[in-house]
Design goal:
This protein has helices spanning 5-22, 30-35, 53-58, 72-81, 119-129, 147-168, 175-185, 193-203; strands at residues 41-47, 62-69, 88-92, 105-111, 130-141, 208-212, 216-222. Helix content is 42%, strand content 22%. With 227 residues, the protein is of the alpha/beta class. The protein has a seven-stranded mixed beta sheet.
Length: 227
């Protein structure tokens, strides 16, 4: 991690409080992620669930969903917004410190969380939590690498503004929330797509990866049914 667990928790507690006031909650790629999951399953896990926006969508696919997050304020919002979803359980804690049952989940999802974790420790743990035949879906921010990536990144800005306007009714988040995200991101380190492909080769052989326009990548990996 580029910053301490304590600092990450403090940052997201602050962002949660500002999000609660502004009501901003975006989900542009959630349908894309759902497309890679089974239509019905027994159990699902989301690591770094935040306010539970995607967790609630998983609840429509799985009999039981577990959402884990480091931030008490994020989980407070998640629980309040999930009051009508009786099949969701939220757990406060660091996924790397929690004792979770091995091979117990049909799908494990991590959105904008992996860059806070050690790949050497987190990816083997995520794989170990999956049942044989289970699916791991990772989405995270991606770093620009070279002129082409920087041109694509520049083109993404007007598209991002249009999407935000359609989904939230405003071009930009409130100033305080923008500043909180900028401050949090100052010490963040993201993988380039070449590094994502190397990560897949090393830890997730056979995985598919996709570079999205809005500064994201997605990796999908299925555990062998005979594992």
């Amino acid at each position: 991690m580029s910053v301490s667990t304590h600092q990450v928790r403090e940052d997201f507690d602050r962002i949660a409080l500002l999000t609660e006031r502004s009501g901003c909650e975006r989900d542009f790629y959630h349908d894309y992620l759902l497309h890679h999951l089974m239509p019905r399953c027994e159990s699902a896990l989301e690591i770094g669930c935040g306010t539970g926006a995607f967790t609630r969508q998983l609840a429509g696919r799985a009999q039981h969903v577990t959402g884990i997050d480091l931030s008490p304020q994020m989980l407070r919002l998640a629980q309040a917004r999930s009051a009508h979803h009786t099949n969701i359980e939220y757990i406060l804690g660091d996924v790397m410190q929690l004792e979770l049952p091995a091979e117990s989940y049909d799908c494990v999802v991590s959105i904008a969380t992996l860059h806070h974790l050690s790949l050497d420790l987190a990816l083997p743990k995520m794989k170990g939590l999956l049942k044989p035949g289970g699916v791991l879906v990772i989405q995270d921010l991606v770093a620009a690498d070279g002129l082409v990536d920087r041109c694509i990144s520049a083109l993404a800005f007007p598209f991002n503004l249009a999407i935000r306007l359609l989904k939230t009714g405003r071009l930009l988040p409130p100033k305080e929330l923008r500043e909180a995200w900028i401050e949090h991101g100052k010490h963040e380190t993201y993988l380039t797509m070449n590094e994502v492909r190397e990560m897949c080769r090393r830890y997730l052989p056979g995985a598919t990866s996709k570079h999205h326009l809005l500064w994201r990548y997605t990796v999908v990996w299925q555990k062998s049914a005979s594992a």
